[in-house]
């Protein structure tokens, strides 16, 4: 059962949230995304994350990691191995592509391939201009209470 939502009423009262609505629409679409190879997303700190992908049989040259405008793409392509001589072939080596939508100010800080596990480290760095800041309240000398001003006018005859 597919349900679609109409975001038009929200467009009337919001400005600059186009990207959020695009993300919601993309999440609703029934994309045929394969969950192979399996992966984990781990929060390693307050502002740091790690994506671990099981890439058994893939080497450094078989993997491509691209980060562009909040989209992290991991592509794995392995050279064809001749099938002759195999009695059983259980280690999958088919090509794959994983796409991860990242939040604003999240960037890739590094990647590592060790023991068939590709680890991609992410960090969220909020610019100083966007961080909350304290606003100092200035003390101004209080003025003494003054009597209300009198308005003088000539009496009408």
What is the secondary structure topology, with strand pairs?
Blueprint: H1 8-12, H2 18-28, E1 39-43, E2 48-54, E3 63-68, E4 71-76, E5 96-101, E6 106-114, E7 117-124
Antiparallel strand pairs: 1-2, 2-7, 3-4, 4-5, 6-7
Label this structure with key terms.
Immunoglobulin-like; 4-stranded antiparallel β-sheet; 3-stranded antiparallel β-sheet; 7 strands
Q: How large, in whole angstroms, is the Cα Rg?
A: 30 Å
If strands are numbered along the chain, what order do they take across the biggest sheet? 1-2-7-6
End-to-end CA span: 88 Å
Treating each run of at least 4 consecutive H or I residues as one helix, how many helices? 2
Q: Based on CA inertia axes, which overall geometry fits?
A: elongated
Strand content: 25-35%
What string gives the helices and strands in order? HHEEEEEEE
Annotated CATH topology of the domain at 34-81 and 88-127: Immunoglobulin-like
CATH architecture term of the domain at 34-81 and 88-127? Sandwich
Q: Percentage of helical residues?
A: 10-25%
Query: What is the average of the pLDDT values?
Result: 82
Largest sheet: 4 strands, antiparallel
Identify low-pLDDT runs.
none
Walkthrough of the structure:
The chain has 157 residues and is mainly beta. It has a domain at 34-81 and 88-127: Immunoglobulin-like, CATH 2.60.40.790. The chain contains two helices and seven strands. The chain has helices spanning 8-12, 18-28, and strands at 39-43, 48-54, 63-68, 71-76, 96-101, 106-114, 117-124. The chain has a four-stranded antiparallel sheet, with no helix packed on it. The chain has a three-stranded antiparallel sheet with strand order 3-4-5, with no helix packed on it. A hairpin with a 2-residue loop joins strand 3 and strand 4. The chain is elongated. The protein starts with 7 loop residues before the first helix and ends in a 33-residue tail after the last strand. The model has no long low-confidence stretch (mean pLDDT 82).
